[in-house]
């Protein structure tokens, strides 16, 4: 997340920190994985309303403060996060460092 935040800010003075972030990911994820003894979750978007969500509800986006695409489950399986987010960060940084 830190690397994506630095990439989004795209400030010249952050270039060294961005480069260190890339080195950090490459050194620790040589085979593309993030070593965890088990998968853990932090929650499920849209499930915190305490009721079944009706996708046809015209006020859904307003009530949940998110779009209906996130109202039942996230689009990426949790076991893929360790691949997806580092790759996304590296892709965003590539444009800056090129």
UniProtKB/TrEMBL annotation:
Q: What's an example of a GO molecular-function annotation for this chain?
A: squalene-hopene cyclase activity
Work out whether the entry's keyword set contains Lipoprotein: no
Q: The Squalene cyclase C-terminal domain covers which part of the protein? A: 1-46
Q: Which UniProt keywords apply?
A: Isomerase, Lyase
Q: What Gene3D superfamilies does the database record attribute to this sequence?
A: 1.50.10.20
Pfam families, sorted: SQHop_cyclase_C
Q: What is its EC number?
A: 4.2.1.129, 5.4.99.17
Q: Which SUPFAM superfamilies match?
A: Terpenoid cyclases/Protein prenyltransferases
Q: Which residues form a coiled coil?
A: none
> What is this protein called in UniProt?
Squalene---hopene cyclase @ Squalene---hopanol cyclase
């Amino acid at each position: 997340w830190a690397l994506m935040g630095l990439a989004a800010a795209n400030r010249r003075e952050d270039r060294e920190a961005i480069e260190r972030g890339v080195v950090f990911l490459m050194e620790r994820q040589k085979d593309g994985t993030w070593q965890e003894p088990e998968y853990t979750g932090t929650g499920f978007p849209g499930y915190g309303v305490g009721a079944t969500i009706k996708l046809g509800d015209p006020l859904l986006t307003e009530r949940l403060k998110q779009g209906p695409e996130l109202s039942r489950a996230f689009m990426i399986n949790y076991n893929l996060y360790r691949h997806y987010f580092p790759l996304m960060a590296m892709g965003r940084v590539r444009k800056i460092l090129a």
